[in-house]
Structure formats: C-alpha cells, structure tokens
Amino acid sequence: MPQVELTWGAATAVGQREDNQDRFLAGPPVFAVADGMGGHVGGAAAAEAVVEALRSLTGGSATTVQGIRLALQRADGEIRAFRGADKAGAGTTVAGVALVDEGEGPQWAVFHVGDSRVYRWTGDRLEQCTRDHSVVQELIDAGYLTDEGAATHPQRHIITRALGVGPRPEADVVLLPVVPGDRFLACSDGLTGELGDDRLAELLGGGRPVEETATTLTAAAESVGARDNVTVVVVEGRPAAADVSG
Q1: Domain hosting residue 131, numbered range
Q2: What CATH number has the domain bearing residue 98?
Q3: How far apart are CA 65 and CA 71, in angstroms?
C-alpha cells in the first residue's frame, strides 16, 4: 500500500466541569475522541475502555473497517460488564478517523457512535463528516427542527446511540479518499457546543501547524466559557515522499 505521511495534534480541557471524562487517541493509523458519561468514575472508565480497544489497532501503516468495528464491539461489551455503583449506567460516545486498507489503496475511515463529531477541512471549506445520533438530529431530519433551533433545544444533549448503554450500537463508517492537505478534526460535543461552523472553519483552516491548531481550538472554547469537557484531535495526511536513494 502506498505510504501516507501523517501529522497530528491533540488537546483537551476540563472546562467548567469538576473532572475530565473525555479521552483521546492519537496513534497512527487511528485518531479518535471518546466522551464518557454516567458519573465521573464510570464515564472516564467507559471512555478509557474505547480508547484502549482502538489502541490495539495502532502501530501499523493502516487498519481495516472490520478491525475498527470489532474494537468498538469489544469496548461496548467491556463497558456493559462494569461492576460497582460508581460505574452504573456508564457509557461513551466516540468519533474518529483511521487510515485503512480495503484493497484499493489508502483511504480514510470516518467512524462514530453518538454526538461526538468528525469534520474535514478541504482547503476552502468545512464539511461535517458525521451525523449526530441524537434526538435533535432526528427532529431535524424529520423537518420538525432547524439547525438554529437545535442549538437551544431542551433535548439537545440526549443521544440515541452510545457504547455501553441502550441497544447494542452499530458504528457509522464512511470511507473517504486521502487528499493531500485535507485536515480532519475529531472532537467531543464540548467543542461544538461552544463554537459554530464558521469559527471552526476559521481555526481549522487558519494555516497553523496541526499541533497548534488543536490547542487553539480548545483555547477558543475555553475563552467563551467551555461548559463541558473539550477534546480535539487534528490529523492531516500527505503521500509519503518517494525514496530515491540508491
């Protein structure tokens, strides 16, 4: 498989919460954010479980969609097996991108469960690659609610799919080509709850290195209050330079 050079950056902030239940993974070829819920112990443990399951896919040049699905299924089972009152009802969302090889050369697999999101910056515009598994998204899809109304809807934090709770979830996975210069942002809803698409586009496409972009995004959310934990991973891929050595 042709090699792809990756650069990435990650950052997290506790915001106005007492503790941070978000976790992230930035280990090639997998980049993901998990947003735990269900109490500070259980939520953090659930997010850690999914990150550790995905970590098993790191270390190579690529993984597979099946590998991603199996890792998420394994994490879902581990979270459901939690014991103890401090972990009752624990669950987590997850969103990320991974470089995969499905037999047709390198591709990006965008995957998610819940309302954590993945965005792509293509050089001139921002595209949301995931669709929230949430009550308000279902209302939007049915034509009962606008995007503007969703921002203040009383049920905007209710999700319809998560790892560890409710019906066994299936991750949504979309394959996208590797385009030089494209940037992907995986983030918890603590970011998107504070910054609109225009601001995300400004920061993600601002020309800063990916490491600086990640810290700038969390800092921007904190500057406007950051009511929730805020976690981001930013990754960019380019074809590796050919080895012309003799």
Answers
A1: 4-235
A2: 3.60.40.10
A3: 10
Distance of CA 234 to the CA centre of its chain: 10
DSSP result, 160-226: S--BSSSSPP--EEEEEE--TT-EEEEE-HHHHTT--HHHHHHHHTS---HHHHHHHHHHHHHHTT-
Please compute Rg for the chain using Cα positions: 17
Question: Hey, which bits of 44-136 come out as E strands?
Answer: 91-101, 106-113, 117-121, 126-128
pLDDT tens digit sequence for 29-60: 999 999 999 877 899 999 999 999 999 999 99
Residue 109 falls inside a structural domain: yes
Is position 240 within any domain? no
Distance in angstroms (rounded) separating the CA atoms of residues 93 and 160: 10
Residue type, 193: G
Tally of domains in the chain: 1
Cis peptide before 239 (omega within 30 of 0): no
Q: What pTM was estimated for this model as a whole?
A: 0.92
